[in-house]
Write a structure and sequence with these properties.
The complex is a heterotrimer of chains A (240), B (287) and C (321). Chain A has helices at residues 42-49, 72-78, 95-103, 110-124, 139-152, 169-184, 196-202, 220-223, 227-234, 236-239; strands spanning 2-13, 16-27, 31-35, 57-62, 65-66, 80-82, 157-161, 188-192, 205-210, 213-218. Chain A is α/β, with parallel strands linked by helices and 240 residues long. Chain A folds into two domains: 2-79 and 157-239, Rossmann fold (3-Layer(aba) Sandwich); 88-154. Chain B is 72% helix and 0% strand. Chain C is an all-alpha fold. Chain C has one domain. Chain C contains 15 helices and four strands. In chain C, strands 1-4 form a two-stranded antiparallel ribbon. In chain C, strands 2-3 form a two-stranded antiparallel ribbon. In chain C, helix 3 packs across helix 10 and helix 12 (244-257) packs parallel to helix 15 (305-318). Classes of the chains: A alpha/beta (240), B mainly alpha (287), C mainly alpha (321). Chains in contact: A-C, B-C. Chain B binds chain C through residues 35, 83, 86-87, 90, 92-94, 96-98, 100-109, 111-112, 116, 219, 223, 226-227, 230, 259, 261-262, 264-265, 268-269, 271-272, 275-276, 279, and chain C through 54, 56, 58, 103, 106-107, 109-111, 113-115, 117-119, 121-122, 125-126, 128-129, 244, 248, 251-252, 255, 283, 285-286, 288-289, 291-296, 299-300, 303.
């Protein structure tokens, strides 16, 4: 059964359709890549699923239960965590405190929350940085922190918004391995990413959207050959 | 009907002056994303400038505009350069608190030096109102209205026709893009703050003959100014004009038809309603 | 041991508070101490919301006014003694804070600040014009205080000591509440909200509820401060209790003392009262000049405030954490 179902999801911003009639589902345990050209509506999909933006119409269900209309904190409590494309740490706090704040969701007592945070920080490889201020981290470590915060809420599904954006080739490999390890730990992953090489390699399946609509879906290798996808990425002329 | 027309007209006239104060605040917000709580004090300084100009040098308040406007421009630039520039990177709340301190400082130094007395400026031509179409209009208010329009048009020409003006508008719309396109953001910020302060000062000079002046008048004006820019959408010049005139009219009509005591309250209720339901401003031109 | 270290400063503080009226017989000095304590409560009230949660309110005078009016009206019209009236004043302010919070918390950052300013102005207008309840601009005057006897001895309201004791109790409540908040999960949530509201929501923090609860706590303290004011100065009118100046003084205390610290408001209140008393002799209202000036200097050179700086130095010596 699908863990997340998105059905006929639509969102207008003052007449402009950011997401239109979009349906897809995420199976438990998979890594789903959500790709599309700039402005295709990928981040809006994340904002809709996590309650930061309300859909104009359509359904979003986690395990068959609707999450539409829930505020973001309630969505997080249900088990959907997210990262932000432009990282949003708590800049003036230590790395440890950043993650502990997220761990409070499942561990209301501070000692337990701190212990849980410690484990997550180890998983993402931030243990040596726990006492540093979040604002002083390198971009790679900020992306790690972003993931650590999401994981510390102990989600069933995590939505990663460009975890590799802005990283160099080596760092992209590290981040890819990290994403794979998240999945191996039993958390389902939806990934928005521009680094095509990485997404092709680690996704089990990809959904391609363009101008808010789904234009293709399937295994990565197959999808890139579809003319609609090529047209969306490279313009219609070159394909024709 | 006559009362209605009368209060409508005086509302529009006062509103145009409110608008000028609002434009000053909104331009600064647009470029620097800061809310200057000392803006009302800049208006107050303009008012006292007009007063002392007349008292000491027999300078007609409207003529003194040519002295005080450039002077307030310089005051604004210095305020930015020596006081605010280091504060702004510390975040918007720090800036807000800092300008709150600045506002307290200026108002109370003025109170100390000039005392809390209410003062008025009397003009030889201010005694008898003109009566076009049977509507009484105070001459100083009419002159102020005309000058306010002239200044606003001049500002508009500056913002749309000069390179510096275009740079200011570009920065207001998209600071990152403006930087990438080679706009000197620092220079734009200095000039914008000078401009905002000059507008506040000029509005103060224009308002001086029509209002009581006292050192802490800035507080009341600042609050009105917030109402205006929020009505029109923070950062929008046309919005500030519309918001200013709307507030002037609402206050003027409200004083007649609702209650003179709750006159100021009407503005605040409108303000809250807009903040809550149309945070981008009544006219949807803001963010 | 750890527990002892945590509560030792608090115990010392309470002991010092208790010792002052025993040692000091000078009624002017006691008056100054009462002012310091009252301002501490108000600064702490503001700091809970502004310092911890980063929600800068320019309208806390409105809550102070609700407390002051509630307390004085309950006494003058219902005969309710201050020891009931003051907590009820706090409660009334907390109740009023709920709709205000519901409205204003839809806005963030400076927009929130502006909306609180507007709310305070509306409250002041209501106080001025709702004459049947608030007595308008005339205000209320307390001419005699209720008889009170403790352990058989009747209390002399003419002296300062009973007021000092009341102010000290309120201060202990305010500081204990902020101390508890700082070490609690809610306190950590508030800091998260201050640092980044979206990120706080994303990790499961109910920002709206957390802010509303905090606002209510802040209002409760400010309202009790207002109730105390009404009894100490025996006079309440709109200008005295609902002016923007009062809101700014609360901001000043918290900023100068140290945003988001427990001890900051006490330090800020000492500073504020000292400046006011030193300056008052020379020129009236001149103290506001210094409030403005100090606020600018502190934000420019010491944004963590006096107490914040002291703590930093102490913690630095201990080797961090």
């Amino acid at each position: 059964m699908a863990l997340l179902e998105v059905e006929k999801l639509t969102r207008n911003f003052g007449g402009v359709c950011a997401v239109s009639n979009l349906s897809f589902s995420v199976t438990e345990g998979e890594i789903l890549g959500l790709i599309g050209p700039n402005g295709a509506g990928k981040t809006t999909v994340f904002n809709l699923v996590t309650g930061f933006v309300r859909p104009t119409s359509g359904a979003i269900r986690l395990d068959g239960r609707s999450v539409v209309g829930l505020r973001p904190h309630a969505v997080a409590r249900r088990g959907i965590a997210r990262t932000f494309q432009i990282v949003k740490p708590f800049p003036g706090l230590s790395v440890r405190e950043n993650v502990t704040l997220a761990a409070f969701l499942r561990h209301p007592a501070r000692p337990e929350a701190e212990a849980a945070a410690e484990k997550v920080l180890e998983r993402v490889g931030l243990s040596p940085r726990v006492n540093e201020l979040a604002s002083q981290l390198t971009l790679m470590d900020q992306k790690r922190l972003e993931m650590a915060k999401a994981l510390a809420t102990e989600p069933r599904l995590v939505l990663l918004d460009e975890p590799m954006g802005g990283l160099n080739a080596t760092e992209v490999d590290v981040a890819s391995a990290l994403v794979q390890r998240i999945r191996e730990s039993g958390v389902t992953v939806v990934l928005v990413e521009h680094v095509m090489k990485a997404i092709m390699r680690i996704s089990d399946r990809v959904v391609v959207i363009n101008q808010g609509e789904k234009i293709a879906e399937g295994p990565p290798a197959k999808v890139v050959e579809e003319p609609e996808v090529l047209a969306a990425y490279f313009g219609k002329k070159r394909v024709a | 009907m006559e009362t209605f027309a009368q209060s409508l007209v005086s509302g529009v006239l006062t509103g145009a002056l409110y608008a000028m104060i609002g434009i000053g605040l909104t331009v600064v917000f647009g470029v620097m994303k800061i809310i200057n709580l000392a803006h009302g004090e800049m208006v107050m300084l303009g008012m006292f400038g007009a007063f002392w100009g007349q008292a000491l040098w027999h300078l007609d308040p409207f003529v003194s505009l040519v002295v005080w406007t450039p002077l307030m421009f310089v005051v604004g630039m210095l305020t930015y350069r020596f006081l605010l520039r280091k504060i702004i990177p510390g975040g918007e709340l720090n800036t807000l608190l800092y300008t709150a301190g600045l506002s307290l400082l200026i108002a109370n130094v003025a109170l100390f030096v000039w005392k809390g007395d209410y003062r008025t400026i009397s003009l030889s031509y201010g005694m008898t109102p003109v009566r076009p179409f049977g509507i009484a209009i105070a001459v100083p208010l009419a002159i102020a209205f005309g000058l306010a329009i002239a200044i606003t048009v001049a500002l508009w020409l500056f913002l749309s026709r000069t390179n510096l003006g275009r740079a200011i508008r570009a920065t207001s719309q998209n600071p990152e893009a403006a930087t990438l396109m080679g706009v000197d953001v620092e220079r734009v910020a200095v000039v914008t703050f000078g401009l905002g302060t000059a507008l506040a000062g000029a509005a103060g000079v224009l308002l001086a003959p029509s209002l009581y002046l006292y050192p802490t008048v800035g507080e009341l004006l600042l609050v009105k100014c917030f109402v205006i820019v929020v009505l029109g959408g923070l950062g929008s010049v046309p919005g500030a004009i519309a918001g200013g005139i709307l507030l002037g009219v609402v206050e003027s009509l409200g004083a007649v038809y609702v209650s003179a005591t709750y006159k100021d309250g009407i503005g605040f209720v409108l303000f809250l309603a807009v903040l809550l339901y149309r945070p981008s401003g009544l006219f949807g031109v803001g963010k | 041991m750890k527990l002892a270290r945590r509560f030792l400063p608090a115990l010392l503080g309470v002991a010092a508070l208790a010792a002052i009226p025993l040692v000091v017989k000078n009624s002017f000095f006691l008056h100054v101490c009462i002012l310091v304590l009252m301002w501490t409560v108000l600064g702490a009230a503001w700091n809970v919301l502004g310092g911890f949660a980063g929600q800068v309110s320019f309208g806390h005078a409105a809550l102070f006014a609700v407390g002051a009016y509630t307390t004085i009206i309950l006494y003058l019209k219902g005969g309710l003694a201050p020891w009931w009236g003051i907590p009820l004043g706090g409660l009334a302010a907390a109740v009023v804070s709920l709709p205000i919070g519901f409205l204003c918390f839809r806005l963030r950052g400076p927009y929130f600040s502006l909306s609180t300013l507007a709310v305070a102005e509306i409250v002041k207008l209501v106080a001025l014009n709702w004459e049947s309840v608030t007595a308008g601009s005339v205000g209320y005057l307390i001419t005699s205080l209720p008889p009170l006897s403790i352990l058989g001895a009747s209390v002399n309201w003419e002296g300062k000591v009973p007021f000092y004791v009341a102010a000290a109790i309120l201060t202990v409540i305010a500081l204990a509440a902020t101390g508890w908040l700082r070490s609690s999960r809610i306190g950590a949530y508030l800091v998260a909200i201050r640092e980044n509201e979206d990120a706080a929501e994303a990790v499961g923090i109910d920002t709206v509820r957390t802010k509303a609860l905090t606002f209510a706590l802040s209002a409760f303290l400010a309202g009790m401060g207002g109730g105390f004011y009404a009894f100490y100065f025996r006079y309440v009118d709109p200008d005295a209790v609902a002016g923007i100046g009062l809101s700014m003084e609360m901001v000043f205390i918290a900023v100068v003392g140290g945003l988001g610290t427990v001890g900051g408001p006490l330090v800020g209140a000492v500073f504020l009262t000292a400046v006011a008393e030193l300056v008052r002799e020379r020129f009236q209202a001149g103290h506001l000049i210094f409030y403005g000036l100090f606020m600018m200097l502190v934000i420019r050179y010491m944004p963590e405030g006096i107490w914040g700086r002291v703590r930093k130095i102490i913690d630095g010596k201990k080797g961090g954490s």
